[in-house]
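Could you help me review a protein record that somebody else here produced? Do not assume that whoever made the record got everything right. The record follows directly below this note.
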Amino acid sequence: MTTLTADAVVVGGGHHGLVAAAVLADAGWDVCLLESTDVLGGAVRSEERHPGFVTDVFSAFYPLTAASPIMRSLDLERHGLRWAHAPSVLAHPPRPDGAPAAVLYRDRDRTAAALAEHDQHDGEAWLRLCDQWDAIGPAFLRTIFTAFPPLRGPVDLLRRIGTAEALRFARFLALPARRMGEELFSSEAARLLLAGNAVHADAPPDATVSGVFGWMLAMLGQNYGFPTPVGGTGQLAAALASRARAAGADLRTGEHVESIEVSGGRAVAVRSASGLTVRARRAVIADVSAPLLFGDLLPADALPARLRADLERFAWDTAVVKINWALDGPVPWRSAGVSGAGTVHVGADELGLARWSADIESRTLPTSPFMLLGQMTTADPARSPEGTESVWAYTHLPRGISDDDSAEQLAGRMEAVVEEFAPGFGARVLHRDLQRPSDLQGANPNLMHGAVNGGTAQLFQQLVFRPVTGLGRAETVIDGLYLGSASAHPGGGVHGACGWIAARAALAQHGSLGWLRKRITSAALDLVYRDPA
């Protein structure tokens, strides 16, 4: 049995936890981070699963990281991080018959020219969309990457677009992805650039606000590309860990946290399975899922009954099935323009996306799954020997299904679809590695049931509804306890905002007006979660 004391204890060493540790240590706090597995980084991890081939085990491309003011402020390049870009950002072949793909390049004029080949007006429409992003993009990102309710971001947005356009822009953000594409573009190719990007979240393309995901990722890809760390995604985790340690944080792996001790309504200590107890003078930051935090780590009597009831309605995002391949040569795509893309959206055109989404929402195992595919050596030649390709693809199991038998069946269908779009693909496979939902959760306990987004991204579980109906903030009903994972606002993606917001909330409650902030937050939380008489 060992007991330590720190100003703050961070539970979980995913990228949000590492960001929180760095921010708190920068402020002069004594920080101790406890990570359950033997590797820091959470869903930012790479491994050599076949000799000479680097596999990104979870996430791979990082437009949100490149755009995040939080991640940029950490100056990770000083800690060894280098970025690589594929010749083109992404491609979306609509059909397996070799029809021309929609291609997004980092040069907006080149993207527009390519879209104009499908329809002359779409090139001009794309450039107008880029101009819109130039005007409002920074303010929009500032809005979503700050604590809720955001203030400076919306004020800046309103100043930039004017009151007359504010309602029109609000309507634009509320559009389903398919409707947004129809209003903006004439050709299927241009619409696919939005629709394919929208599917990176788990909101159906006909759902309200699904369009904003496609619009944002398309514009991030246009302005920042979809970069990947040179040498594998583990290099991003290593840079974050180096940054936190340089600030003075104590990072410990192999420490599986079993409980958070609460005394007098305040989080006072964290206990791990090894017998380690770390007492927290000021704060506990939890980079774990909301169900794990509130359902497993805290004593049941520390939570209001209404909060416990709300958590029973918490909705996970759909489970992921991922295949990693080592190929002896490039993917033999039929469609021109696909071979140079780092990210490929493959398996469906517009109508196919609608059918696939309907299958996902109706518990039907898709016959022809839509996939996100990464050509990692194309993006970063350091990933495999010259002339070869390190490739992965993932898709989703239908909502409510996460069993391994279904994952095996779906994986076979995934490979059949890739073979349709790239005849001869199977003959180039040197090694195949399947990650089922249970494999994902086993490698990272935070990825419950193989869900990688920390909870659904649909509107009913965003903003003040994330993770449950409340304040949409990092503060919890337990004094000194802050939720700093993807289960908190603003949600999934490698952007660091959840950890940063939690760390900033902890610092603010111990600042000059901390007593006032605590009273206001406590009163608001009591109002939301007070059990009915």
